[in-house]
């Protein structure tokens, strides 16, 4: 039911025994997998979650200017790869603290989910109330700033998933009701 | 902000060059990572998404009796690990077809999200309208059946995330309004 994905196989050696990998379809499977030629361990490659927040204070939204690639110098919402051992909300709050030195109160449930199948990622954002004006650039951030809805630098956003989350947020804020949104991106996002 | 997770480090050799791994905290990082002792590649371990559906037809819900461990012989909703190259919805529909031979129309947005941090998984379910009575047991399933809301075999469910999704669904159906739900499980499931 799903088209083959275009992600390049990147596993060359077995993480369990160090022997060479070959890509083949295991018994009872329908997909090409990295299989160890010696110990037969099958290595699965699964999509990763990027978690973040839309931090707001009054009518303004906090954005971060990126100090790293991809998107150096562009604006983004605080977000990053979810880690094992944490929940979606813990990961989103952690990234917000790391990138914007900001403490937030997350609003449940999750707000914006964007699938990006061709790079094997799901970008998940929560709405998040900033506790105060105590925020600053983290080490992956050049600057942080609050933007009114009509001040968002749409032409300087680093990622389409951020654009989608901000568009949903502003539209919902305008009509006065927030619902969870889910989108699929089919084009390359930087 | 997050407690160390209890997942056992499982990477022993580098997938890029086959050399031995050591676990240490790389520069500009705060977590123990699997780092190659020769080529210095850092191997990240991220949570995995399990995607599935709550398939319904009229007032009944389809459940699958598991033919594999964990939970052999217990009832579950059709679900499984999301694959690279597919969206959340494509993965959920694929698992529904593989496990219950059922074609469904998924309802957006995502309905039930359950974090299970201690095993590094997020279980995500969509509501899904069954097209017809054309369903059957897939190769990981012993039997499929439709259950009225008061017939759900609560004592014989394989996973807590399935219990949570079904509880939300039945409560929402009873009050006549469905919203996205997000929970965190802190106890061992399955």
TrEMBL record, chains A, B:
The keyword Zinc does not apply. Residues 46-170 form the Nudix hydrolase domain. InterPro entries: NUDIX_hydrolase-like_dom_sf, NUDIX_hydrolase_dom, Nudix_N. SUPFAM superfamilies: Nudix. Its EC number is 3.6.1.22. One of its GO terms (molecular function) is hydrolase activity. Keywords: Hydrolase. It comes from the Bacteria. This is NADH pyrophosphatase. It comes from Ephemeroptericola cinctiostellae. The gene is nudC.
